[in-house]
Every structure is written in structure tokens, then in C-alpha cells.
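pinned: reference chain
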Amino acid sequence: MKHIEFKPSQMVCTKQISFDLDENNNIHNLGFLGGCSGNLRAISKLVEGKNAEEIANILTGNKCGPRPTSCADQLSKAIVKAMEQNQ
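pinned: its C-alpha cells
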């Protein structure tokens, strides 16, 4: 299993996103440092064990209020970067 730590854009509340990718590119142990606790814990539960590419496709482009990105969108960017590094 590969551990990923990602520093998101300064436009979002979370300061760090961390997760593990298994050999099948499934997400485990997703965690956020900062941000909207309830929403981010819910996302963590929803994506546990799910395929990283599928999750990235679902969350990409999600916005938070007037911001051009969100914690979920930043997670999609972290996943894409991690999968590119795994190739």
C-alpha cells in the first residue's frame, strides 16, 4: 500500500489530505487536516475501499461557494497525481 500526502490549494480550508492506495488503486484511510469536519468525515467514509479513478471522476470540478475549487475537488487532484506517480 502506498501512502499519499497532498497539500491542497490555499483556496480551501483543509491544509492536508492523506490517504493510502492499495495495489488495485482503491482508497483507504482518507483523512483531512482542517476543513468542515462533518462533511469531510462523511467523504472519508463514502470513499473507503472505492476505486480511486472512479472517485476522482465523481469529485472533480466540485466547487465550494464562490471558490473555483473545494476540498473534494482537491481530493480528486490528489488522487490523479497519486495515480500518475504509480504508473
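why pinned: The chain has three helices and three strands. The mean pLDDT is 95.
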